[in-house]
Each structure stands twice: as structure tokens, then as C-alpha cells.
Design a protein that fits this description.
Shape: elongated
Strand content: 15-25%
CATH superfamily of the largest domain: Ribonuclease Z/Hydroxyacylglutathione hydrolase-like
Number of domains: 2
Number of helices: 6
Structural class: alpha+beta
Radius of gyration: 19 Å
Distance between the termini: 56 Å
Bound molecules: zinc ion
CATH architecture of the largest domain: 4-Layer Sandwich
Largest sheet: 6 strands, mixed
CATH class of the largest domain: Alpha Beta
Order of helices and strands: EEEEHEHEEEEEHEHHHEE
């Protein structure tokens, strides 16, 4: 059985609240197998991250919703592979839009307009289940993870991915904020992580600790790279710091490298002049 068939609603293992994953029809180098959308509940449903605007996928959602009612559309962040499908889905169902509006930078979907200003830690009581917003800026400044409280299942969007690591794109992406948000999740009693791309992760704390360690190891590589290369530019430094990354991903690695450099500069460990970075 091909469990990753796009458009098909596949049950996620839960105890009391049904959750289904519906894979998007957008596989690619940055989206892996495609964007995961999740449908939560039995009669009063919430759909998380409808993905790109796609009529075929919209039809799959409506089919999976069936005679139940879609109450909420939850948006982790407004990158193009997560939120643009919300508009047509909202028009078709009248569901309430939950999330934060797009920041004024390139790469964000401005068609998404939430129905109100949602607060960090706000709890949405759907009746059958409750969902809590957890602010997790870093990958994007408006990123939210959603906690299905009855299951302690966290929908992580692009904050924690399976099979790959999130790209942090400055100026909207922020490495220090990203690490702080990971540290916040580390203290939560979670049972599983449901990512925006990839498979469900059943050992949340181990995954989160691994991610924090991975970023700090990369940061150390930035410092040792600068120590041996002296003052250097992004193009030179990226090859040293991301020597384990495939060539076609280097342009993305460069952006995350810049996020590391900005963090280190703020911490006054390094400095920059004329596009050259060096240790202080
Ligand atoms: Zn994203």
C-alpha cells in the first residue's frame, strides 16, 4: 500500500480524537513528499495547513470532510506551501481562519487574513477537543504550532520537520528565536509531533533535543570555519560550514548560514564589514 498517496486521508495513530493526514500534491526539493494537511475531529472538524491553492486538493478536503462541519482552518505560517489553499476552503465551508497575517517580506502569502487576532497559548474549544496555539517564531516570524491537548499531539508546521531540517530565512527567519522556541517545546509533555513535511515522530523530546544539538553543532562549525578562514564572505564560508549538504541545497544553506551569522553578531561573537564576516 502506498501510504503517501496525495489527496488520500490516512488515519494518524491517536487515542481519542481522530486525526487524518492528507498529503499535498506538491512534492519537491523543499517540500519533501509534499505538504501534510491534517483533519482533526469527528463531526466538528479543524483542518491544519491546506497547502497551496489547488482545486484538486480542495476537492479531496471536501470529500474527507463529507457531512461533518469544518469549524476551523489552522495555519502554522504563511509560506506558499502552507496557507494559500485556505481562501477557497474557507469560501466553500465558512470555517474560521486561525493564524497570523503575513509579514511584509517576500515569500509570504498575503491572501491569508485571519478572522481575529489570536493570542499565544489561546485555547480553541471545538467541543469534541481543544486546540492550543503555541507561538514558535524562527522559521517564519508568524509561525505557530498547534497542540491537540487531549492527545498531547503537536502539529509543528515547518518548525520541526521529519527527514530534513527547516530553512531559516533572514530577515523574517530568526535563528535565536528558532532555538528559543525549540527550548520552549522541550519542556512540554508531548506524545508525538505531526510535521508539515514528512512522517509523524513518536519521540518528541529526543527529536527536539537532536534538533537543538544539530543547530548548535552547526553554529560551532561557523565559529571554527571563521577561525581557520579568517575574514570571509558567505560563498566561501557556506562550503566549509555545510560541507555535508548536497550542491543543489547550497543556496538554501547560505540563507540559514546568514541566520547563524546574524545570531552570532548579535551575541557579539563575530563582526561584519564589507560583506566579510570575522571573529571578534
Ligand atoms: Zn515554511
Amino acid at each position: 500500500m502506498n501510504v503517501s498517496e496525495a489527496g488520500t486521508a490516512i488515519a494518524v495513530a491517536t487515542n481519542s480524537v481522530p486525526v487524518k493526514r492528507i498529503l499535498g500534491r506538491n512534492p519537491g526539493p523543499m517540500t519533501g513528499p509534499g505538504t501534510n494537511s491534517y483533519l482533526i475531529g469527528t463531526q466538528s472538524l479543524s483542518l491544519l495547513d491546506p497547502g497551496p491553492a489547488d482545486e484538486v486538493q480542495l476537492h479531496s478536503f471536501l470529500e474527507a470532510i463529507g457531512t461533518a462541519t469544518l469549524k476551523y482552518i489552522l495555519i502554522t505560517h504563511t509560506h506558499g506551501d502552507h496557507s494559500p489553499g485556505a481562501l477557497a476552503l474557507q469560501e466553500a465551508t465558512g470555517a474560521t481562519l486561525v493564524g497570523r497575517k503575513a509579514p511584509e517580506v517576500a515569500g509570504h502569502d498575503r491572501t491569508f487574513v485571519p478572522d481575529k487576532i489570536w493570542q499565544d497559548e489561546e485555547i480553541i474549544d471545538v467541543g469534541e477537543y481543544t486546540i492550543q496555539l503555541i507561538d514558535t517564531p524562527g522559521h517564519a516570524s508568524n509561525h505557530i504550532c498547534f497542540l491537540l491537548r487531549e492527545e498531547q499531539l503537536l502539529f509543528t508546521g515547518d518548525h520541526v520537520l521529519q527527514g530534513t531540517t527547516s530553512v531559516i530565512l533572514p530577515p523574517d527567519g530568526d535563528m535565536a528565536a528558532y532555538l528559543d522556541a525549540l527550548a520552549r517545546l522541550k519542556n512540554m509533555p508531548l506524545t508525538a509531533l505531526a510535521p508539515g513535511h514528512g512522517e509523524i515522530m513518536s519521540e518528541p523530546q529526543a527529536e527536539i533535543e537532536k534538533l537543538i544539538a544539530h543547530r548548535l553543532k552547526r553554529e560551532q562549525k561557523v565559529l571554527t570555519g571563521l577561525n581557520s578562514l579568517g575574514a570571509c564572505g558567505l560563498d566561501e564560508l557556506v562550503l566549509r560550514v555545510y560541507d555535508d549538504v548536497a550542491a543543489h541545497l547550497i543556496p538554501w544553506a547560505k540563507k540559514t548560514l546568514l541566520a547563524h551569522l546574524i545570531k552570532l553578531e548579535r551575541e557579539q561573537k563575530i563582526s561584519q564589514a564589507n560583506e566579510l564576516w570575522q571573529l571578534k
